[in-house]
Amino acid sequence: MSSYYSRDRNWHPRAYYPDYKTSVLRSPQKALLAMPTGVAEETSPVFGQDILGPLDHDMIHNFAAEGASAIGPRIIVYGRVIDQDGHPIPNALIEAWQANAGGRYRHAKEGYLAPLDPNFGGCGRTVTDDQGRYEFRTIQPGPYPWPNGPNDWRPAHIHLSLFGHGFGQRLITQLYFEGDPMIKYCPIVRTIADPAAIDSLVAQLDMDATVPMDARAYKFDIVLRGRRQTVFENRLEGL
Ligand SMILES: [Fe+2]
């Protein structure tokens, strides 16, 4: 049984970052322990296309009344899910959630004064195809203020949760948009130390994938943790 590459903690966000206030209390106070994984963690969960409804990937319509659609700039978010070795990851479940075009979430504890859109729910899901490809249709979310410092705003973003082929590949992340001037001011973005790591979270406008008179497209590839290749019965596993 192979295991996954260990996490590069210089690439991932810092757990403790006082400018992001809630990180202070919820970050680990003691040294982390390494937990061995077994077959269950390395081979599950497993998802397939059969869990999806026809509009699950379409947040413009999946919460809208018959004949209606969500308000906001219509976009396609698409890309590939691959591992650290560049192998495509088929059947990866991607769940997405986001604020509406005004920057408001549909959530009981949401307090921002921007209005709800009755035709926008703010969540969707899809499963990658046999080449690791995925696509969402949605509206571009708005930036919103949040009670952290005296005047902190989140850049426009979409939250993403991914299941790969084992819990070792689990990833929860956020997607930002090329050219957004708010990215550099965000304390949550700043928990990431390496500018190249931040760039990897910025979806790129792709005019070639735009649908004329309908939606602009943003391309966003996602890399999940790779498996170490181990010598097994005189051959390299996975080769
Ligand atoms: Fe958010």
Uncertain ranges: 233-239
| Second rung of CATH, namely the architecture | Sandwich
CATH class: Mainly Beta
**SSE string, helix = H, strand = E?**
HHEEEEEEEEHEEEEE
Q: What's the Cα radius of gyration? A: 19 Å
CATH-defined topology: Protocatechuate 3,4-Dioxygenase, subunit A
How much of the sequence lies in strands comes to: 25-35%
Major pleated sheet: 9 strands, mixed
Write down the domain tally: 1
> Which percent range fits the helix content?
under 10%
Terminal-residue CA separation: 14 Å
Distinct ligands: fe (ii) ion
Task: Give the helices and strands, then pairings.
Elements: H1 22-26, H2 39-43, E1 74-83, E2 93-97, E3 123-127, E4 133-139, E5 144-146, E6 152-154, E7 157-163, E8 171-177, H3 195-199, E9 202-205, E10 216-219, E11 222-224, E12 231-232, E13 235-236
This protein binds fe (ii) ion.
Residues 154, 157, 159 line the site of fe (ii) ion.
